[in-house]
Design brief:
CATH superfamily of the largest domain: Type I PLP-dependent aspartate aminotransferase-like (Major domain)
Bound molecules: pyridoxal-5'-phosphate
CATH topology of the largest domain: Aspartate Aminotransferase, domain 2
Number of helices: 17
Distance between the termini: 43 Å
Largest sheet: 7 strands, mixed
Shape: globular
Strand order of the largest sheet: 4-10-9-8-7-5-6
CATH architecture of the largest domain: 3-Layer(aba) Sandwich
């Protein structure tokens, strides 16, 4: 089929039949969108013939780009050998077993067990049931409350959306009543006159205050991303995580690190928990575990929780038809094989990310850039009306949405959250490709100013 000739027909069918996630459905039905039909290395192509540098690694998942054929081949082989069997009823399959072992090896030392899901959302749902089961088995059934952060994104199911702190999502379905939210550590927006270190301590201590308010005997867990991603790539002040860790340790609160974006090299080490010195009892992963090529997520269960679950007796009443799907696990294994057999994470951390972060800081002098923040291959530019006062852009002015659209039209895929431009390029970018990203971003910023 000549795809290009059929672009108009495809777009028409898409508008007629396809409801898109996180999209203004009326607008899409009227105007349609871009149909992506091919990708290689760090570039995507659409049916109109445009080639775009993917500054977002898809949806923060294709960390190794689009040309990792060994993953595709592993999936194909697995589909021929054993396309499906479930992991219920005392059954298992080889890729799931091998991936569980490999994950135990690459994740921090406290993790030896994994529960597989198909997505990050389901993994965070799983966290809720794991935590409730853990405290029930310990004879503390009143410990049921979760604390999370405003503007956090932990997924789209009703439970994961409740753990998240995105107000518009809460408005579109009533969520769980046992989740409470504290502020995110967004120094630029909320720090006022405080220095970053002092602000980091202050905002971390909101957790302590919330535990006091709700009762230590009722709060079960605190969930957070090491670096909040969809919430705006919020880089925490250095003081933040040590204080959060202290509070959780002293108060018998489980710490859940949601590593769905941070995991597998994004922040410079294998996991964001390692970058920030966090020791969680539970850890959510998804996305880059298969380099985005197959749906797979899960929860790494630390020894403290696993020991109780494994000695508690009675059924853990939770599972998904595709938990530990053999083809998805084969994709995960092939991805880990690439990561473990190469120095991609180290090269990105030591050579590519420093170049990326240094070049981004050239925009600090740009008239509409209030702050440049980032860690590893992860960054945001906060756009402002007034750099000195940090005054926000007026709603009617050209802002981050306009800037994103200009960048996209100019061949660079980046995203916007609030007034921030956000980026998470593949770890396999070269420094020359980072320079192309910077050049295209600069043009979009100039067009927006
Ligand atoms: N947690 C975080 C931190 C995420 O960024 C996301 C998705 O972007 C999720 C959970 C949900 O993952 P999924 O979209 O695979 O359900």
């Amino acid at each position: 089929m000549d795809i290009k000739a059929d672009t108009a027909a495809l777009r028409q069918l898409d508008r007629a039949h396809h409801l898109h996630p996180f999209t203004d459905l009326q607008d899409y039905a009227e105007h349609g969108g871009r149909i992506v039909n091919r990708a290689e290395h760090i570039y995507i192509h659409d049916t109109d013939g445009n080639k775009m540098l993917d500054g977002m690694s898809g949806l923060w998942c294709c960390n190794l780009g689009y040309s990792q054929h060994s993953i595709a081949e592993a999936v194909y082989r697995q589909l021929r050998e054993l396309p499906y069997y479930n992991n219920f009823f005392k059954c298992s399959n080889q890729p799931a077993v091998e991936l569980a072992k490999a994950l135990a090896e690459v994740t921090p030392a406290q993790f030896k067990h994994v529960f597989f899901t198909n997505s990050g959302s389901e993994a965070n749902d799983t966290n809720i049931r794991l935590v409730h089961r853990y405290f029930d088995l310990l004879g503390k059934p009143e410990k049921k409350l979760f604390i999370s952060r405003k503007n956090a994104y932990h997924g789209s199911t009703i439970a994961a959306g409740s753990l998240g702190g995105m107000a518009p999502m809460h408005k579109q379905a009533i969520g769980l009543t046992y989740v409470h939210h504290i502020n995110q550590p967004h120094w630029f927006e909320n720090g006022g006159d405080l220095g970053e270190a002092e602000y980091g301590l202050q905002v971390a201590r909101e957790l302590e205050a919330k535990i006091e308010e709700l009762g230590e005997d009722k709060v079960a867990a605190f969930i957070a991303e090491p670096v909040q991603g969809a919430g705006g790539v919020i880089i925490p002040p250095q003081t933040y995580w040590p204080e959060i860790q202290r509070i959780c340790d002293e108060r018998d609160i489980l710490l859940i690190a949601d590593e769905v974006i941070c995991g597998f090299g994004r922040t410079g080490k294998w996991f964001g928990s390692e970058t920030y010195g966090i020791k969680p009892q539970l850890m959510t992963f998804a996305k880059a575990i298969t380099n985005g090529y197959m749906p797979l997520g899960g929860v790494m269960v630390g020894d403290q929780v696993a020991d109780v679950l494994l000695s508690g007796g009675g059924e853990f009443t939770h599972g998904l038809t595709y938990s530990g799907h053999p083809a998805a696990c084969a994709a995960g294994l092939a991805t880990l094989e690439i990561l473990r057999g190469s120095d991609i994470i180290e090269t990105a951390a030591e050579q590519i990310a420093p170049h990326f972060q240094r070049r981004l800081r050239e925009f600090e002098g740009h008239p509409i850039v209030g702050q440049v923040r980032g860690q590893g291959m992860f960054a945001a530019l906060e756009l402002v009306a007034n750099k000195a006062s940090r005054e926000r852009l007026a709603p009617e002015s050209r802002g981050a949405v306009f800037c994103r659209d200009r960048a996209n039209s100019n061949g660079l895929m980046v995203r916007q959250t609030g007034d921030a431009m956000i980026m998470a390029p593949p770890l396999v970018c070269s420094t020359d490709e980072i320079d192309i990203l910077i050049e295209k971003l600069g043009i979009a910023l100039d067009e927006t100013a």
